[in-house]
Amino acid sequence: MSKKKKVFSEEVELSEIVLEKTNQAFAMIRQEDIVHMGKTNTKGKRIYKMQAAAVAGICILAVSSISVIAAIHHYWGRGMNGNIQASDAQQQELTEQNIAKVYREEPDSSSLAVTDNGITVKPDTVVVDERFAYMSFSISGYHVEDGTEPGFGVVTVYQGDNPEDESSWVNMYGSMYDGIIPDENGSPIYEDGSPLESDENGRIISHYTDSNGDMEYIIQASVVNENDSLLGKTMHVNFQNLGTRSRGAFTPAVEGNWDFAITLPDVSSSRTITVGQKVGGTGFTLETIDISPISMKANYSVEEAPEGHEDDLGIPEVRGVVLKDGTRLPYLTDGGSMGYTDSSRKNACHMAGYDRVIDVDEVAALIVWTSYENEKIEIPISK
Q1: Which of 121, 293, 328, 339 could be bridged to 47 by S-S, CB 3.0 to 4.6 A?
Q2: Per-residue model confidence (pLDDT) at position 72
Q3: Rounded distance, CA 228 to CA 331, Å?
Protein backbone atom coordinates (compact mmCIF):
# COMPACT_ATOMS: atom_id res chain seq x y z
CA MET A 1 0.00 0.00 0.00
CA SER A 2 1.29 3.42 -0.85
CA LYS A 3 2.60 5.42 2.08
CA LYS A 4 1.77 8.77 0.53
CA LYS A 5 -1.79 9.31 1.66
CA LYS A 6 -5.05 7.52 2.21
CA VAL A 7 -6.79 8.92 -0.85
CA PHE A 8 -8.25 6.40 -3.23
CA SER A 9 -9.17 7.23 -6.76
CA GLU A 10 -12.21 5.34 -7.85
CA GLU A 11 -9.89 2.87 -9.50
CA VAL A 12 -11.83 -0.28 -8.84
CA GLU A 13 -14.16 0.18 -11.73
CA LEU A 14 -14.98 -3.47 -12.14
CA SER A 15 -18.12 -3.00 -14.15
CA GLU A 16 -16.80 -1.85 -17.52
CA ILE A 17 -13.69 -4.03 -17.56
CA VAL A 18 -15.55 -7.03 -16.24
CA LEU A 19 -18.63 -6.70 -18.34
CA GLU A 20 -16.65 -6.47 -21.55
CA LYS A 21 -15.17 -9.85 -20.61
CA THR A 22 -18.34 -11.49 -19.38
CA ASN A 23 -18.35 -14.20 -22.01
CA GLN A 24 -14.86 -15.27 -21.02
CA ALA A 25 -15.87 -15.16 -17.37
CA PHE A 26 -18.84 -17.43 -18.03
CA ALA A 27 -16.61 -20.02 -19.61
CA MET A 28 -14.14 -19.92 -16.76
CA ILE A 29 -16.85 -20.10 -14.12
CA ARG A 30 -18.32 -23.19 -15.74
CA GLN A 31 -14.91 -24.81 -15.24
CA GLU A 32 -15.04 -23.71 -11.58
CA ASP A 33 -12.27 -21.24 -12.25
CA ILE A 34 -12.45 -17.60 -11.27
CA VAL A 35 -10.85 -14.49 -12.67
CA HIS A 36 -9.41 -12.12 -10.12
CA MET A 37 -7.48 -8.91 -10.13
CA GLY A 38 -4.40 -9.14 -7.95
CA LYS A 39 -2.06 -6.64 -6.38
CA THR A 40 0.73 -7.44 -3.98
CA ASN A 41 1.49 -4.83 -1.38
CA THR A 42 4.50 -4.92 0.92
CA LYS A 43 4.36 -2.94 4.14
CA GLY A 44 7.20 -3.52 6.57
CA LYS A 45 7.25 -7.21 7.41
CA ARG A 46 3.70 -7.83 6.34
CA ILE A 47 2.84 -8.90 2.80
CA TYR A 48 -0.67 -8.55 1.47
CA LYS A 49 -2.21 -9.52 -1.80
CA MET A 50 -5.33 -7.54 -2.52
CA GLN A 51 -7.86 -9.25 -4.73
CA ALA A 52 -11.37 -8.78 -6.01
CA ALA A 53 -13.43 -11.21 -8.03
CA ALA A 54 -13.58 -10.02 -11.62
CA VAL A 55 -17.15 -11.20 -11.95
CA ALA A 56 -18.49 -8.41 -9.83
CA GLY A 57 -18.95 -9.81 -6.38
CA ILE A 58 -22.37 -8.40 -5.81
CA CYS A 59 -25.74 -10.02 -5.49
CA ILE A 60 -29.31 -9.35 -4.44
CA LEU A 61 -32.36 -11.12 -3.15
CA ALA A 62 -35.86 -9.89 -3.85
CA VAL A 63 -37.85 -8.65 -0.86
CA SER A 64 -40.19 -11.26 0.52
CA SER A 65 -43.86 -10.77 1.22
CA ILE A 66 -45.00 -8.19 3.75
CA SER A 67 -45.43 -9.48 7.27
CA VAL A 68 -48.97 -9.52 8.58
CA ILE A 69 -47.62 -8.15 11.84
CA ALA A 70 -47.16 -4.40 12.03
CA ALA A 71 -43.38 -4.33 12.34
CA ILE A 72 -40.60 -2.25 10.86
CA HIS A 73 -38.90 -4.00 7.98
CA HIS A 74 -35.28 -2.91 7.88
CA TYR A 75 -34.89 -2.97 4.12
CA TRP A 76 -31.26 -2.37 3.22
CA GLY A 77 -31.93 -0.81 -0.15
CA ARG A 78 -31.14 -1.79 -3.71
CA GLY A 79 -27.42 -1.08 -3.69
CA MET A 80 -26.56 -2.82 -0.43
CA ASN A 81 -28.70 -5.79 -1.40
CA GLY A 82 -26.78 -5.85 -4.66
CA ASN A 83 -23.48 -5.84 -2.81
CA ILE A 84 -24.16 -8.43 -0.13
CA GLN A 85 -27.19 -10.65 -0.63
CA ALA A 86 -29.43 -11.06 2.38
CA SER A 87 -32.83 -12.59 2.87
CA ASP A 88 -35.61 -10.52 4.38
CA ALA A 89 -35.13 -12.28 7.71
CA GLN A 90 -31.35 -11.77 7.63
CA GLN A 91 -31.73 -8.05 6.98
CA GLN A 92 -34.15 -7.78 9.87
CA GLU A 93 -32.01 -9.79 12.26
CA LEU A 94 -28.69 -8.08 11.52
CA THR A 95 -30.27 -4.63 11.75
CA GLU A 96 -32.00 -5.38 15.04
CA GLN A 97 -28.71 -6.74 16.39
CA ASN A 98 -27.01 -3.45 15.40
CA ILE A 99 -24.67 -5.22 13.00
CA ALA A 100 -26.35 -3.25 10.23
CA LYS A 101 -27.77 0.27 10.27
CA VAL A 102 -30.33 1.74 7.87
CA TYR A 103 -29.82 5.50 7.94
CA ARG A 104 -33.06 6.45 6.23
CA GLU A 105 -34.87 5.03 9.28
CA GLU A 106 -33.06 7.42 11.61
CA PRO A 107 -35.09 10.37 13.00
CA ASP A 108 -32.44 12.81 11.75
CA SER A 109 -31.94 11.13 8.37
CA SER A 110 -32.57 14.34 6.42
CA SER A 111 -29.75 16.08 8.29
CA LEU A 112 -27.29 13.46 7.04
CA ALA A 113 -27.77 14.44 3.39
CA VAL A 114 -25.19 16.66 1.67
CA THR A 115 -26.22 18.70 -1.40
CA ASP A 116 -23.74 20.40 -3.72
CA ASN A 117 -24.43 21.78 -7.19
CA GLY A 118 -27.90 20.26 -7.15
CA ILE A 119 -26.68 16.73 -6.39
CA THR A 120 -27.68 15.16 -3.06
CA VAL A 121 -25.66 12.32 -1.56
CA LYS A 122 -26.63 10.63 1.70
CA PRO A 123 -25.68 7.47 3.59
CA ASP A 124 -28.17 4.66 3.14
CA THR A 125 -27.00 1.42 4.77
CA VAL A 126 -23.95 0.16 6.66
CA VAL A 127 -23.16 -3.48 7.53
CA VAL A 128 -20.10 -4.11 9.69
CA ASP A 129 -18.04 -6.70 11.51
CA GLU A 130 -14.52 -6.56 12.96
CA ARG A 131 -12.79 -6.82 9.58
CA PHE A 132 -15.13 -5.40 6.93
CA ALA A 133 -17.52 -2.49 6.52
CA TYR A 134 -20.00 -2.31 3.65
CA MET A 135 -21.37 1.19 3.08
CA SER A 136 -23.91 2.40 0.54
CA PHE A 137 -24.69 6.01 -0.41
CA SER A 138 -27.69 7.15 -2.45
CA ILE A 139 -27.22 9.82 -5.13
CA SER A 140 -30.10 12.01 -6.32
CA GLY A 141 -30.20 14.62 -9.05
CA TYR A 142 -27.55 13.18 -11.37
CA HIS A 143 -28.38 11.39 -14.61
CA VAL A 144 -26.31 9.81 -17.35
CA GLU A 145 -27.18 8.58 -20.82
CA ASP A 146 -27.79 4.90 -21.41
CA GLY A 147 -24.60 3.04 -22.14
CA THR A 148 -22.41 5.30 -19.99
CA GLU A 149 -20.92 4.50 -16.62
CA PRO A 150 -21.32 7.08 -13.83
CA GLY A 151 -18.67 7.62 -11.19
CA PHE A 152 -16.93 10.01 -8.85
CA GLY A 153 -13.59 11.59 -9.70
CA VAL A 154 -12.01 10.88 -6.30
CA VAL A 155 -13.21 8.86 -3.32
CA THR A 156 -11.34 9.23 -0.01
CA VAL A 157 -11.91 6.73 2.80
CA TYR A 158 -10.14 6.57 6.16
CA GLN A 159 -10.87 5.86 9.81
CA GLY A 160 -10.02 8.01 12.80
CA ASP A 161 -9.01 11.66 12.66
CA ASN A 162 -5.79 11.89 10.66
CA PRO A 163 -5.75 10.55 7.09
CA GLU A 164 -1.94 10.78 7.02
CA ASP A 165 -1.54 8.44 10.00
CA GLU A 166 -0.98 4.80 9.01
CA SER A 167 -3.39 3.70 11.73
CA SER A 168 -6.18 5.41 9.79
CA TRP A 169 -5.62 3.44 6.60
CA VAL A 170 -8.12 0.95 5.26
CA ASN A 171 -8.24 -1.30 2.23
CA MET A 172 -11.06 -0.17 0.01
CA TYR A 173 -12.78 -0.58 -3.31
CA GLY A 174 -15.98 0.97 -4.53
CA SER A 175 -18.16 1.62 -7.56
CA MET A 176 -21.64 2.63 -8.64
CA TYR A 177 -24.08 -0.23 -8.32
CA ASP A 178 -24.96 -1.39 -11.83
CA GLY A 179 -27.79 -3.84 -11.15
CA ILE A 180 -25.68 -6.91 -12.01
CA ILE A 181 -25.20 -9.66 -9.44
CA PRO A 182 -23.73 -13.17 -9.30
CA ASP A 183 -25.93 -16.17 -8.73
CA GLU A 184 -24.92 -18.88 -6.24
CA ASN A 185 -22.47 -20.34 -8.78
CA GLY A 186 -20.84 -17.00 -9.54
CA SER A 187 -22.46 -16.42 -12.92
CA PRO A 188 -23.52 -12.79 -13.54
CA ILE A 189 -27.22 -12.03 -13.92
CA TYR A 190 -29.49 -9.04 -13.39
CA GLU A 191 -30.86 -8.41 -9.92
CA ASP A 192 -34.30 -9.73 -10.94
CA GLY A 193 -32.72 -13.04 -11.99
CA SER A 194 -32.92 -12.43 -15.73
CA PRO A 195 -29.94 -13.08 -18.03
CA LEU A 196 -27.63 -10.27 -19.11
CA GLU A 197 -28.35 -8.40 -22.33
CA SER A 198 -26.04 -6.59 -24.75
CA ASP A 199 -26.51 -3.41 -26.77
CA GLU A 200 -25.85 -3.06 -30.49
CA ASN A 201 -22.13 -2.65 -29.78
CA GLY A 202 -21.92 -5.88 -27.83
CA ARG A 203 -21.59 -4.22 -24.44
CA ILE A 204 -23.51 -5.59 -21.49
CA ILE A 205 -26.38 -3.29 -20.53
CA SER A 206 -26.12 -1.97 -16.97
CA HIS A 207 -28.92 -0.57 -14.80
CA TYR A 208 -27.48 2.16 -12.59
CA THR A 209 -30.70 3.96 -11.66
CA ASP A 210 -33.63 2.76 -9.60
CA SER A 211 -37.32 3.46 -10.21
CA ASN A 212 -36.89 6.95 -8.70
CA GLY A 213 -33.96 7.79 -10.94
CA ASP A 214 -31.47 7.58 -8.04
CA MET A 215 -28.15 5.73 -7.97
CA GLU A 216 -26.10 4.11 -5.22
CA TYR A 217 -22.37 4.06 -4.64
CA ILE A 218 -21.10 0.98 -2.78
CA ILE A 219 -17.93 0.81 -0.71
CA GLN A 220 -16.26 -2.25 0.78
CA ALA A 221 -13.61 -1.25 3.34
CA SER A 222 -11.47 -3.61 5.37
CA VAL A 223 -8.69 -3.46 7.95
CA VAL A 224 -5.07 -3.20 6.81
CA ASN A 225 -3.66 -4.92 9.89
CA GLU A 226 -5.26 -8.32 10.49
CA ASN A 227 -5.44 -7.63 14.24
CA ASP A 228 -7.32 -4.33 13.90
CA SER A 229 -11.06 -3.90 14.28
CA LEU A 230 -13.50 -1.53 12.59
CA LEU A 231 -16.18 -1.88 15.27
CA GLY A 232 -17.29 1.47 16.65
CA LYS A 233 -14.80 3.39 14.51
CA THR A 234 -15.61 6.64 12.70
CA MET A 235 -15.24 6.19 8.96
CA HIS A 236 -14.63 9.32 6.92
CA VAL A 237 -15.87 9.19 3.34
CA ASN A 238 -15.39 12.03 0.87
CA PHE A 239 -16.64 12.15 -2.72
CA GLN A 240 -15.40 14.72 -5.21
CA ASN A 241 -16.90 15.54 -8.61
CA LEU A 242 -19.33 13.44 -10.59
CA GLY A 243 -18.93 12.33 -14.17
CA THR A 244 -18.56 9.28 -16.33
CA ARG A 245 -15.90 6.64 -16.81
CA SER A 246 -14.78 4.87 -19.95
CA ARG A 247 -11.85 2.46 -20.11
CA GLY A 248 -10.51 3.82 -16.84
CA ALA A 249 -10.63 7.49 -17.86
CA PHE A 250 -12.81 9.88 -15.87
CA THR A 251 -14.71 12.68 -17.60
CA PRO A 252 -16.04 15.27 -15.11
CA ALA A 253 -19.58 16.58 -15.49
CA VAL A 254 -20.50 18.17 -12.14
CA GLU A 255 -18.10 19.70 -9.63
CA GLY A 256 -18.93 18.96 -6.04
CA ASN A 257 -17.74 17.86 -2.63
CA TRP A 258 -19.73 15.50 -0.44
CA ASP A 259 -18.19 14.70 2.94
CA PHE A 260 -19.38 12.24 5.61
CA ALA A 261 -18.29 10.94 9.02
CA ILE A 262 -19.97 7.58 9.65
CA THR A 263 -19.86 6.01 13.12
CA LEU A 264 -19.86 2.27 12.55
CA PRO A 265 -21.87 -0.15 14.69
CA ASP A 266 -19.88 -1.67 17.55
CA VAL A 267 -21.51 -5.08 17.96
CA SER A 268 -19.33 -8.13 17.30
CA SER A 269 -20.82 -10.90 15.17
CA SER A 270 -17.63 -12.93 14.70
CA ARG A 271 -16.71 -16.17 16.39
CA THR A 272 -13.47 -18.14 16.42
CA ILE A 273 -13.62 -21.84 15.46
CA THR A 274 -10.68 -24.16 16.10
CA VAL A 275 -9.96 -26.26 13.00
CA GLY A 276 -6.42 -27.64 13.37
CA GLN A 277 -6.33 -29.41 10.02
CA LYS A 278 -3.55 -29.59 7.45
CA VAL A 279 -4.40 -28.19 4.04
CA GLY A 280 -3.66 -31.10 1.74
CA GLY A 281 -0.93 -30.58 -0.82
CA THR A 282 0.51 -27.56 1.01
CA GLY A 283 2.75 -26.77 3.95
CA PHE A 284 -0.11 -24.93 5.69
CA THR A 285 -2.28 -25.93 8.62
CA LEU A 286 -5.59 -24.14 9.07
CA GLU A 287 -5.46 -23.54 12.81
CA THR A 288 -8.53 -21.37 13.38
CA ILE A 289 -11.07 -19.41 11.40
CA ASP A 290 -12.74 -16.21 12.59
CA ILE A 291 -16.10 -16.21 10.87
CA SER A 292 -19.08 -13.86 10.85
CA PRO A 293 -22.21 -13.50 8.70
CA ILE A 294 -20.34 -11.14 6.32
CA SER A 295 -16.63 -12.06 6.36
CA MET A 296 -13.99 -14.48 7.59
CA LYS A 297 -10.29 -14.66 8.48
CA ALA A 298 -8.43 -17.93 8.08
CA ASN A 299 -5.37 -18.27 10.34
CA TYR A 300 -2.58 -20.61 9.23
CA SER A 301 0.62 -22.00 10.67
CA VAL A 302 3.24 -22.58 8.01
CA GLU A 303 5.62 -25.55 7.97
CA GLU A 304 7.37 -24.32 4.85
CA ALA A 305 6.43 -21.20 2.92
CA PRO A 306 6.16 -21.89 -0.81
CA GLU A 307 7.78 -19.84 -3.51
CA GLY A 308 5.42 -17.25 -4.91
CA HIS A 309 4.10 -17.53 -8.44
CA GLU A 310 3.87 -14.12 -10.12
CA ASP A 311 1.49 -12.23 -7.81
CA ASP A 312 0.38 -15.37 -5.97
CA LEU A 313 1.84 -15.82 -2.47
CA GLY A 314 0.97 -19.50 -2.32
CA ILE A 315 -1.30 -19.04 0.70
CA PRO A 316 -4.48 -21.18 0.57
CA GLU A 317 -7.66 -19.17 0.08
CA VAL A 318 -11.04 -19.94 1.59
CA ARG A 319 -13.31 -19.18 -1.34
CA GLY A 320 -16.58 -20.75 -0.33
CA VAL A 321 -18.55 -22.91 2.09
CA VAL A 322 -20.72 -25.99 2.17
CA LEU A 323 -23.84 -25.68 4.29
CA LYS A 324 -25.32 -28.42 6.45
CA ASP A 325 -28.18 -28.93 4.01
CA GLY A 326 -25.68 -29.68 1.23
CA THR A 327 -25.86 -26.27 -0.45
CA ARG A 328 -22.53 -25.30 -1.99
CA LEU A 329 -21.47 -21.67 -2.28
CA PRO A 330 -18.15 -22.05 -4.13
CA TYR A 331 -17.71 -18.33 -4.88
CA LEU A 332 -18.83 -16.81 -1.60
CA THR A 333 -15.81 -14.64 -0.89
CA ASP A 334 -15.48 -11.30 -2.64
CA GLY A 335 -12.43 -9.14 -2.15
CA GLY A 336 -9.98 -9.17 0.71
CA SER A 337 -6.31 -9.61 1.53
CA MET A 338 -3.78 -12.24 2.48
CA GLY A 339 -0.24 -12.32 3.75
CA TYR A 340 2.38 -13.65 6.11
CA THR A 341 1.97 -12.12 9.52
CA ASP A 342 5.57 -12.40 10.72
CA SER A 343 9.02 -12.00 9.18
CA SER A 344 9.78 -15.71 9.57
CA ARG A 345 6.81 -16.58 7.33
CA LYS A 346 5.67 -19.16 9.86
CA ASN A 347 2.18 -17.71 10.17
CA ALA A 348 -0.23 -16.40 7.57
CA CYS A 349 -3.81 -15.30 7.21
CA HIS A 350 -6.43 -14.78 4.53
CA MET A 351 -9.24 -12.26 5.09
CA ALA A 352 -12.21 -11.98 2.77
CA GLY A 353 -15.68 -10.47 2.67
CA TYR A 354 -18.70 -12.24 1.21
CA ASP A 355 -21.08 -11.57 -1.63
CA ARG A 356 -24.00 -12.67 0.56
CA VAL A 357 -24.89 -13.06 4.22
CA ILE A 358 -24.51 -16.54 5.68
CA ASP A 359 -25.74 -18.22 8.85
CA VAL A 360 -22.54 -19.25 10.61
CA ASP A 361 -24.34 -22.04 12.47
CA GLU A 362 -25.21 -23.68 9.13
CA VAL A 363 -21.63 -23.92 7.82
CA ALA A 364 -20.43 -27.53 7.63
CA ALA A 365 -17.23 -27.17 5.59
CA LEU A 366 -14.92 -24.66 3.94
CA ILE A 367 -14.03 -24.75 0.25
CA VAL A 368 -10.30 -23.97 0.08
CA TRP A 369 -8.29 -23.19 -3.03
CA THR A 370 -4.84 -24.60 -2.34
CA SER A 371 -2.74 -23.16 -5.18
CA TYR A 372 -2.61 -20.72 -8.07
CA GLU A 373 -3.68 -23.64 -10.27
CA ASN A 374 -7.03 -23.47 -8.45
CA GLU A 375 -6.93 -26.91 -6.88
CA LYS A 376 -9.72 -27.22 -4.32
CA ILE A 377 -10.38 -29.21 -1.19
CA GLU A 378 -13.10 -29.22 1.44
CA ILE A 379 -12.22 -28.90 5.12
CA PRO A 380 -15.01 -29.79 7.57
CA ILE A 381 -15.43 -27.60 10.62
CA SER A 382 -17.29 -28.15 13.87
CA LYS A 383 -18.68 -25.50 16.17
Answers
A1: 339
A2: 52
A3: 26
